[in-house]
Amino acid sequence: MQKGNKQDLENLCGIDPLVKLFVDLISFDTQSDPESKTTPSTVGQLRFGAYLLATINKLGYLAKQDSNGVITVKVEATKGYEKAKSLCILAHMDTAPDCSGANIEPSLVKNYQGGGIELENGLVINDALCKDLNRHQGEDIIVTDGTTLLGADDKAGISCILQLLHNLKVTDKIVHGPLTIIFSVDEEIGLSTKYLDVKEIGCDYGLTVDGTSEGELDIATFNAYGAIVNINGLSVHTAVAYKTLKNAITIANEFMGLLPQDETPETTFGEEGFYHVHKIEGSTISCKLNMIIRDFTHTGMEKRLQFLDKVKDFINQKYGKDTISIKTMFQYANMQEQLDKHPKFIQMIKDAYKEAEVNVFENKVRGGTDGSNLSNQGLPTPNIFTGGLNCHGPYECLPVGAFNKAYKVLENIVQLLANTTK
Ligand SMILES: [Zn+2]
Hints:
Elements: E1 2-3, H1 6-15, H2 17-25, H3 43-58, E2 63-65, E3 71-75, E4 87-92, E5 107-109, E6 117-118, E7 124-125, E8 141-143, H4 152-170, E9 179-184, H5 198-201, E10 205-211, E11 216-220, E12 223-232, H6 248-258, E13 274-282, E14 286-295, H7 298-319, E15 324-332, H8 336-339, H9 343-355, E16 361-364, H10 370-376, E17 383-385, E18 398-399, H11 400-418
Parallel strand pairs: 1-6, 4-9, 4-10, 10-17, 11-16
Antiparallel strand pairs: 2-3, 3-9, 5-8, 6-7, 8-18, 11-17, 12-14, 12-15, 13-14
Bound molecules: zinc ion.
């Protein structure tokens, strides 16, 4: 079984500037924290932001960081291309709360031959875990030591954008229209677009560099709602509980039993939606359940919300008024409807893939991206791949060939857009 080697990665850094950038960026711990009360949620993102700010300004741009930690860089168009459609390119600074992103120890699997990859701590990335890996035989692959995530999500995206900023300064061969670069915070905890203002961004199109496997082009996301379910019980001594006790735990259990058992994350795939109870706390007196609801269509989402309403009515009829209450909260909407209004832009991105010799496959994300909210607020924002695989955990890895192609696709999109007019 192949293993990563640190010296090989160091050697590659000497000849592949994109990889060098990436390795520098993942040395920062930028894990976000959903429990935090601060903005951004962790100080690591601010430290990382300060580093990015200095790096970008050294390149000769004027980067700004706002009070939320978000970094914005405005890049003037190449002379003569000022009238081209403007593009906002986004990537996020934070890494997922699911797994540590501190003291990442990356190494390189040279010339991957298929089969499993053994990480330093004994964990194995195999085909069962990651079918995509087989497509990358013959490539070099960056892996972790198995104790942290890698941070390709989304520092691979940030690397591509930094490489673009660098290349725009050293060559005038890449012609481009007006560009706005945004490095957002707290994307992994669903807060990033809260700090972004589409009007202020003022661009015709957006693009997130935050996808995964080579060739993926995300043109749809889920519609998403969160829900908090409160159940009130009635607690009496068990000695006199007969026909009196109303156990909130039992009712919570019944509530979960009434949800369609074949519509959970673990029983659905493709374009199927689901209900997912992800947290439960409580006692006999009261129970609180946190859940998320996902569906690709608006009508599907409506039906799901109506179904929850029916379950609520049923339980309240059975156990008494106000036994259960369900508060639903909109989280984000599918971006597909908005992107469908811009077929030329989407076609241009596909052309950019083709020019980079990448086979494009349109993908519907079983989740959200920054583009979900931005597109629905008026900035059509599809998501392109970075090459990173198995994000959010210790099996995360980055095939170097795919990563370099992601950069090339980004460069091509910028160039193709230069030849458009408003
Ligand atoms: Zn991401």
